[in-house]
Amino acid sequence: MTDRTVANVTCLGCGCACDDITVVVTRDRIAEARNACALGTAWFGDGTVPAETRVNGRTASLEQALTEAARLLSGAKRPLVYLAGDVSCETQREGVAIADRLHAAIDSLAATAAAAVLAAQRRGRAGATLGEIRQQADLVVFWGVDPSARYPRYTSRYAVEPPGVATAQGRKSRTLIAVDVGESRGPADADGRVAIASADEVDGLGMMRAAVQGRAAEDEERFRSVVELARRMTGARYVAIVADSEPGLIPADPARAEALVTLAQALNGPTRCALSTLRGGGNRSGADAVLTWQTGFPLAVDFARGYPSYRPQAGAAALLDGGEVDAALVIGTPASLPEPVATGLSRVRSVAIGPRASAATFQPAVAVDTGKAGIHEGGTAFRMDDVPLPLRPSLGDGVRAALVTVRALRERMGARA
Ligand code: SF4
Question: Over 80: is that where the pLDDT of 415 sits?
Answer without folding.
Answer: no
